[in-house]
Design goal:
Elements lengths: L1 H11 L4 H9 L3 H27 L7 H15 L5 H14 L3 H29 L1 H20 L3 H27 L6 H16 L1 H4 L3 H23 L10 H16 L8 H14 L3 H36 L4 H29 L1
Helix pairs in contact: 1-13, 2-14, 3-4, 3-11, 3-14, 4-5, 4-14, 5-6, 6-7, 6-9, 6-12, 11-12, 12-13, 13-14
């Protein structure tokens, strides 16, 4: 969080604060409100996509409840990076009694696919504008990373091998303990959780409605683009920017959001401001105003909808409290459905053959 606020100060310290405030006061906030509504729609498509992964394992969850869990997770992401991924699994687990380990596995699978989409988007953007973006990426990404790590190759290699060794040792230890696990014990419980997580991770590979999954993903990213593009019309200094500029800002701005800083505070502003000023010669005051408005509007939306979602989840869980009997019912349901899931995967593999 401190790094984010430092970056906020750094990107604005050399600009005229009064001009920035004046431009933000004169912005057309109807476009910003529309961008915020588009943001809600994008998150609803994410909830539908997550729901599809969960249903692939034989569990039924209401889209509205899944949406509340997603928005609650985003709210916690504003506090600590990636805390929201765990939180939304916990929320949906409490409100629908689906195994937490299975939910977390589906989130891992979903996030891995999102990373692939982000890499593909950035790669396409760079290839289509290679001569245009080359110098920018070399100046602000390649050289800073090279300067940071050029004298630390040995340390990086040692850390890499140390992590590999630790993973192997943990795997062997757990494998040995799992073999000797007694039914009903803690190790047996951990084994069940890991099996559930693995089942969740496999959902993308074996799910039947792949085209629906891809459609939801496309709609998510389309709405992400519209969130960025519509804010161009809010400020006079960015009115001239078009579709290609919007795609570039989305691609590079996504890096700022993905970095381990709560809500992308500072990192998003730094990248977007540099993109607008260095690539598209946008007046610095307009670039700073755009970055603040585009980012702050989405943060406000996440706060408002996230708090509302937590309130709705509170009423839902109050009606259906998670008791010990529910927990036992969940364990029995998982054991009962486990063989069905395995047969389902086997049938799909046979269809492929």
């Amino acid at each position: 969080m401190l790094i984010g606020f430092f970056l906020l100060w750094y990107v604005t310290k050399d600009h005229d604060g009064e001009k920035i405030i004046h431009e933000m006061q004169n912005a057309n906030y109807w476009w910003v409100v529309l961008s915020m509504l588009i943001g809600v729609i994008s998150h609803f498509f994410r909830a539908l996509r997550w729901n599809l992964l969960i249903s692939s394992l034989g569990y039924e969850t209401k889209p509205s409840v899944t949406f509340y869990a997603v928005m609650g997770g985003y709210l916690f992401n504003l506090v600590t990076p990636r805390l929201g991924e765990i939180t939304r699994c916990g929320i949906l687990h409490r409100s629908s009694n689906v195994s937490f380990s299975i939910l977390f596995g589906t989130v891992l699978s979903e996030r891995f696919f999102d990373i692939l989409c982000m890499i593909a988007l950035i790669s396409i953007t760079i290839l289509l504008q290679l001569s245009f973006l080359g110098a920018f990426l070399e100046k602000y990404i390649y050289h800073p990373l090279l300067e940071r790590f050029e004298n630390n190759y040995l340390i990086i290699i040692l850390i890499f091998f140390a992590v590999i060794i630790i993973i192997i040792l943990i795997y062997k230890f757990l494998k040995k303990r799992f073999r000797k696990a007694r039914p009903g014990g803690r190790i047996s419980w951990l084994k069940m959780q890991l099996k559930g997580m693995i089942a969740g991770v496999k959902t993308i590979r074996y799910m039947r409605k792949r085209w629906t999954f891809l459609f939801y993903t496309f709609m998510m990213w389309l709405n992400y683009f519209l969130m960025v593009y519509l804010c161009f019309f809010a400020i006079e200094g960015t009115l001239h920017l078009g579709l290609s500029e919007g795609i570039t800002v989305l691609s590079l701005g996504t890096i700022g959001i993905a970095l381990p800083v709560p809500g992308g505070i500072g990192t998003y502003h730094f990248i977007v401001i540099k993109t607008l000023t260095e690539l598209y010669n946008v007046y610095p005051t307009s670039a700073v105003s755009y970055a603040y408005i585009a980012h702050a509007s989405q943060i406000l939306m996440l706060l408002a909808v996230g708090l509302f979602s937590l309130l709705m989840i509170f009423f839902i869980t109050k009606k259906t409290p998670f008791s010990k009997s529910n927990k036992n019912k969940l364990i029995n349901e998982f054991e009962k459905n486990k063989s069905a899931h395995q047969n389902n995967y086997k049938n799909i593999r046979d269809e492929k053959k």
